[in-house]
Amino acid sequence: MHVEIRIRWVHILFTSKELKVLLVPQGTDAYVLPEDSGQSTNPGKYSTKMLAPFTASHGHFISQVNNPVLQRDNRGSYMTFDYYILMTPEMTSRSSDSGKWISVHEALQHKSHISLVISATIKKLRQDLNHQLVEYYLLPIHFTIPELQRLYELILGKELDRANFFRRVLTMDILICSGERKLNTKSKPPMLYTFNNNYFKKTEQGATSIF
């Protein structure tokens, strides 16, 4: 039996102190999540094929959000796979997707399937934060500790004590100080850091969250 396989992509970007997702135009004035579809007798094999362009690139991190079930509508039987893809600002400048980036907060206000998918995505991202290096794929090469803290707060949905966070990340040996400061800031320019790649290589099979 041929089943229509629908794959929805949630592209996630961290920029300007916000988590953002990509919506693409549908028709004249509607925006939706990027989606691919096709007919197959093997849903798992088809979804793997659709992931190939992303898994071939070492710069992407992909995680499956849902466990799809077989459903029916007026077009026949179908299954919908949802995946999130983490992207750095550098990657979005090379992205071929056309559309608009909106904040996760705004996406959650949509009165459509978008809010449901984004809600499930953030929940899965929060789970992955405990054992995957998601921050590594969302931050630029050089970043500040306040930016790292802000990313954690957005994913966890709660504020973290600044002093405790600063102290903890500096004692975990996960960052390397670049020796440079971030420019164009109103207050004293904060120091720029990069991830300690040796640390992340050691923790790829069992990474733990900062908090």
Structure at a glance:
The chain is α+β, with helices and mostly antiparallel strands.
Structure report:
The chain has 211 residues and is an alpha+beta fold. 34% of the residues lie in helices and 31% in strands. It is built from eight helices and ten strands. It has helices at residues 43-55, 89-92, 104-107, 113-128, 134-138, 145-156, 162-171, 197-203; strands spanning 3-15, 18-26, 30-32, 35-40, 61-64, 71-73, 76-87, 100-103, 175-181, 191-195. The strands form two sheets. Strands 1, 2, 3, 4, 5, 6, 7 and 8 form an eight-stranded mixed sheet that branches. A hairpin with a 3-residue loop joins β2 (18-26) and β3. The radius of gyration is 19 Å and the shape is elongated.
Task: Give the class from helix and strand content and strand pairing.
Answer: alpha+beta
Strand percent estimate: 25-35%
Q: What value does the Rg take, in angstroms?
A: 19 Å
Quick one: how many beta strands? Answer: 10
Largest sheet: 8 strands, mixed
Tally of separate domains:
2
CATH-defined superfamily of the largest domain: Nucleoside Triphosphate Pyrophosphohydrolase
CATH class of the largest domain: Alpha Beta
Low-confidence stretches: none
Kindly report the CATH topology of the largest domain.
Nucleoside Triphosphate Pyrophosphohydrolase
Mean pLDDT: 82
